[in-house]
Amino acid sequence: MTNYKLRTFATGNTFDDSGWLLCDPQYSKPSLIRAIYDKTKLTVGEESLGIYRYSDWLPVNKTLKGSSSTKTYRSGKLGPQLGLENLYVSFSGYWPEIGADMTTCSFKETEAYSVCARLDDRNSGVMVVASAGNTARAFAKVCSENGIPLLLVIPFDNLDAMWFGMQINENVKLVCTPSGTDYFDAIELSSRICQSPLFFEEGGAKNVARRDGMGTTVLSAATSIGKIPDYYFQAIGSGTGTIAAWEANLRLIEDGNYGSNKMRLFPSQNIPFTPMYDSWKKGSREIIFENEESARNNALRIEAKVLSNRRPPYGVPGGLFDALSDTDGDIEAVTNQELKSACELFEKTEGIDIHPASGVALAGMLKSVEKHSIDPKSIIMLNITGGGEKLYKSVNKLYYKKPDLVIGNETETSIIIKQAESLFEV
């Protein structure tokens, strides 16, 4: 068990984690909370520990089987081609050649193994996770392998993301919102399900275990390079991964062994769904939408479907707006064609396929290079949050998880709850 306390970003109030806390019980306004670890100096464990090699800075009560950590390497082909002397790729996915063994091919495994290891005897009932796809696949794998009851909620149109290298056990159930709905609809449905005492919400960005799990990508980079990078590139749907990178950076500064600089954060969104890009460029702390219907339609038009959160933790204290402001960061926006070209470039130069969201990150970095926004001699971290799927599928038999229930938000809450409970034989 890791020793830590929780701190409210908005007030600085520090308190004990008395259970599955997602906010400060003494503070009524929105604010993210952070884990403050007893160990300010990071000791990295053996690679065989997977993600738990970073357990000094994970809010966990146990370890679970099957995890793999992010692998960071210096780019020998893509970097020189772009004129970048110190481009480091932090790769989360399936690529045995470099020791990457995330069988869901996504860095969402870093979240799932951290969140599920935060669970203890006080967490009775069924955890509910809303997802656009990759997160659901990661949590299904971890909970299936470790016997943790789980209810997943995803949009029906994202079902193609529910592939696995093994059969998913019966302790994992899948609910879908109807065709034509998006991630936010799944989030809304999951919230209504959690009105039942049988279920409890995983928490998303509010869960310190999710963010600190994602933050291990930066720990991988800094401990591999020996220094905190100067620039950080990643695609964003909610922005939670970039918030996590900022928080990990601050811990590394406190550690003192990796430098004292703050990475300039450069997340990217997929056009035409760019609510955080649009809001940031207008200097707005609040998300700006033309209207909800156009936002939903735009979310359905992007190639990187996992980047479609209509209610991201952008303006909340401790959220993406604060992270970008504190690090002199910026947001890029890239088209479907630009991300496809970036995916092709990465596979051609580095030798492995990457997910569309990773293509968004690379395309955003390419734009920054073209604009001369970054020093080509600086240390650059490119967070490839998913890859190797084509490789994994070529050498493994696949199993697809079918929905146990399809139900829309127009249904009465009592009926939604009754049907969800019936999946677990209540």
Short précis:
The protein is an alpha/beta fold and 426 residues long. The protein folds into two domains: 71-103 and 210-392, Rossmann fold; 126-197 and 397-426, 3-Layer(aba) Sandwich (Rossmann fold). 34% of the residues lie in helices and 17% in strands.
Structural account:
The protein starts with a strand and ends with a helix. The model has no long low-confidence stretch (mean pLDDT 96). The chain is 34% helix and 17% strand. The chain has a six-stranded mixed β-sheet with strand order 4-5-16-13-14-15, with helices on both faces. A five-stranded parallel β-sheet has the order 12-8-9-11-18, sandwiched between helices. A three-stranded antiparallel β-sheet has the order 2-1-3. It has two domains: 71-103 and 210-392, Rossmann fold, CATH 3.40.50; 126-197 and 397-426, 3-Layer(aba) Sandwich (Rossmann fold), CATH 3.40.50. The protein is an alpha/beta fold and 426 residues long. 52% of the residues are buried. It has helices spanning 78-82, 108-118, 134-146, 183-193, 208-214, 216-225, 240-255, 275-281, 292-301, 320-327, 336-350, 356-370, 389-395, 413-422, and strands at 4-8, 14-15, 33-37, 71-74, 86-91, 94-95, 100-101, 126-130, 150-155, 163-164, 172-177, 199-201, 231-235, 264-270, 332-334, 379-384, 399-400, 405-406. Helix 2 (108-118) packs across helix 3 (134-146), helix 5 crosses helix 7 and helix 11 packs across helix 12 (356-370).
